[in-house]
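Hey, can you fold this?
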Amino acid sequence: MNHPEQRYLDLLRALLEQGEPRIDRTGVGTRALFGYTLRFDLAQGFPLLTTKRIYWKTAFRELLWMLSGDRNIRPLLQQNVRIWTDWPLQRYRNQTGESLSQDEFEQRILADDAFAAEWGDLGPVYGYQWRHWPDGQGGDIDQIACLVEALKTSPTSRRLLFEGWNVAQLDQMALPPCHKTYQFFVSLDTGKLSAALMQRSADAFLGLGWNIANLALLTHLLAEQCGYQPGEIVWFGGDVHLYNNHLEQARTQIARIPRPWPQLLIKRKPPSLFEYTLSDLDIQGYAPCPPIPAEVAV
């Protein structure tokens, strides 16, 4: 039986061999395919890629930050998570003409409340939409809280979902959401919770491993909070692409042999979904191949 990670490696191979050359927003260029599906049974292990190291603590911190509904990079930097700095730093340089280094910019975010409020803000991105979707009457809607309640009280509903693609606010976001629509399904026969994610734009080498891991984590956390067992995760990619500066890295990765998937350990069940911390989570039995460095396209 093939290792489930082979499905991801097959996607990288398809992009290398069949991807259409395209010029993208960043100017780096990509090889792209339209429409791709990956499915993983969480009973087979936690889907953390093993053919290169995924820094799962950083990925998990990002998801927990999104679940908090925050929109500023300061809480991330306080945890040494630097993956969102590129966008506000670029905005700062463009608007002020100052060529601060990333380290200097981040230190000012951490040290200066006013500077952080003005320049650390990403706009109404991801988690802000999840927790503060405008209701059109001056208030907002907590989509995640509504989802939790519905999972507990209406498990067969076809409306078990939340959305990040707020058309009216896209131009206010540092980056419009790539992973945009989440939907959930409770099997009354098995007592399992499954999740699907529609991702409009997928950086297959650098970002997709994180997206898969965080979808799995969210499914585990929701299952625990709502009284279910984790089922499957299903990932749908729209524009799935390899950046031209990731091609050699992808070739390196597909030549590697997947290793056994680890297990997620949830050490504490807090009173609500919004009270988990990284210390509540652990990954056991993770022995991946070495990391493969690559530059993010901004």
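Oh, and this one too while you're at it.
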Amino acid sequence: MSDRDAAAGLSRQRDAYLAHLAVERGLSDNTLAAYRRDLSRYIEFLSARGRGSLVDVRKEDVALFGQAVGSGEDGGSPLAPASAGRTVVAVRGWHRFALAEGWASIDPSHDVRPLQAPRRLPKAIPIDAIVSILEASSVGEGPVPLRDRAMLELLYAAGARISETVGLDIDDLTLDEGEESVLLRGKGRKERIVPMGGAATQALGSYLTRARGVLGAHGRGTPALFLNSRGNRLSRQSAWAILKNASARAGVQDVSPHTFRHSFATHMLSGGADVRVVQELLGHASVTTTQVYTKVTQDTLREVYATAHPRALG
């Protein structure tokens, strides 16, 4: 079999798998594009080894590919451990699907483990830095400062992703007393309802009554919660810029929307919240993802202990 014929057969199986991920699991376009890149590289690797179908693939093929994407031995760019690990995860998912569909009688990737990247602890900033940024966002007159304050208050109050925040519609908010909450749609369009505190509720109420109508007058009507100066839905890039500008005015460096999310999780756990509650609030599929924040809070406890306990230093 020629390399071209091998690649064609594998590509058809890849496309069937990607269609399954899109329809059955509702993965985002960005995630699907990443899977396509990873699997296309795998196809080139397998084709060069004369594998024309997944039924022909052996365990050593998968293991060698995992090594090759990290070193670049397959002719592609060497990937960092985290990216190489993600590529192997995509390959394993494809093989599991092939086994379930009856395309193959074994899963050659079953015992092949992705490279483990060193886990970086999430970055969080102190509560007073968060407050400084929030206050800096509302400096000035007109509807824009009210919008910026409301958006950043919600971002921190709900531990939301920036994409979830700009994707909100008005109907996703509940501001009734005692029921203040927001409906967020996370990865794979999974929904979760997150409570909101008084600061966010007040900021959102001010924005809705005094600012959104002014901004919306310039547009054609949209259910979007946060609007730009043209009356359209605020973009992710514009939301980034709002946070960046507010952080600069507050004198806080290296802040991103994810910093707010990390800070939300860390502050909740430091305040005594159960890790599984924080998992639900963040929309993590596994509590293991959330548990990285417990390392941050344990480090803080150790620092306090070392400086406060009279016998800590022996």
